[in-house]
Amino acid sequence: MQSRAGMSMWTAKMSKSKRSGLMVGAILALGALCLVTGSKATAASGKDDKAAPQMVDSGSFGVFMHGHRVATETFSIHQSSSGSTIVSEFKSEAGTDKAVQTSEWQMSAGGELRKYEWKEVSPGQSQAVVLPNQDFLIERFKSGPQDKELEQPFMLPASTSVLDDYFFVQREVLAWKYLASSCKQDKGALQCPLKQHVPFGALNPHARASTSVTVEFAGREKVTIRGTEVELNRLDLKGDSGSWALWLDDQFKLQRILIAGDNTEIVRD
């Protein structure tokens, strides 16, 4: 894989909730990605200081085409009483000019975008930053360190989800938003409306394009991951760029993605 043009063979087909919190391993309510509220953090520490960021999820996803690993995404999600940060690095596995890209998504405690930054480290040096500007978002970008910075506004609220091309952990965050807004847990079992489309607005900063996607719960499924059969929760993500099947475990961590008709699979390591 190379830069944007070299990786487009498979990415071309890819593509406000106010309920706060995330409780990994039990019930997850997403909007703000917070495991503890500010008051709980203060009570636990006995101090007025903000609690240190807490790890919500971390790890890596392998990207496979026709069964061969072509790229790896390494990610982490941290949260505190003031907000959350999703950091990711994408590296291609093959080719003479290996692609390396990074992203950092900063969210407020209410789940709204504070800042999103994308950088192409190799082989090029493109970069983009998305910031809220009153009632809309603005993206500032340039193709190289010597190039003039340009701006593009988007008539989107700060609650808009980020779905950049090469960062699959952002699909996990969108899945959490869906679960928080549309589902509940009853006696330990996930309860979601079956086969009902829920719309979300999204921004792809890499492509500098806004889009509308839908998420729906497709039920429980048995799938084989690394030779082991497991039962997972399936969500279907659909948009202009195609259809994706997402499988999450009972701790609501993304385990597998399958891009329809593309022979591309993303699996948690």
Q: Numbering strands along the chain, what is their spatial order in the largest sheet?
A: 8-7-6-5-4-3-2-1-17-16-15-14-13-12-9
Q: Could you estimate the helical fraction of the residues in percent?
A: under 10%
Biggest pleated-sheet summary: 15 strands, mixed
Broad structural category: mainly beta
| Poorly predicted runs | 1-46
Q: What form results from the Cα inertia axes?
A: globular
Strand elements, count: 17
End-to-end separation: 20 Å
Name the average pLDDT.
83
Using only CA atoms, what is the Rg? 18 Å
Instruction: Specify the number of helices.
Output: 3
* Helix and strand run: HHEEEEEEEEEHEEEEEEEE
Strand content: over 45%
Account of the protein in words:
With 269 residues, this protein is mainly β. The protein has 3 helices and 17 strands. The strands form 2 sheets. A 15-stranded mixed sheet has the order 8-7-6-5-4-3-2-1-17-16-15-14-13-12-9, with helices on one face. The relative contact order is 0.16. The N terminus is likely disordered.
Blueprint of the fold:
Blueprint: H1 8-11, H2 38-45, E1 54-65, E2 68-80, E3 83-92, E4 100-108, E5 113-122, E6 127-133, E7 136-142, E8 150-154, E9 161-162, H3 169-182, E10 184-186, E11 189-191, E12 198-204, E13 209-225, E14 228-239, E15 242-248, E16 254-259, E17 264-268
Parallel strand pairs: 9-12
Antiparallel strand pairs: 1-2, 1-17, 2-3, 3-4, 4-5, 5-6, 6-7, 7-8, 10-11, 12-13, 13-14, 14-15, 15-16, 16-17
Please give a handful of descriptors for the protein shown.
globular; two-stranded antiparallel sheet; disordered N terminus; single chain; 15-stranded mixed beta sheet; 3 helices; mainly beta; 17 strands; 269 residues
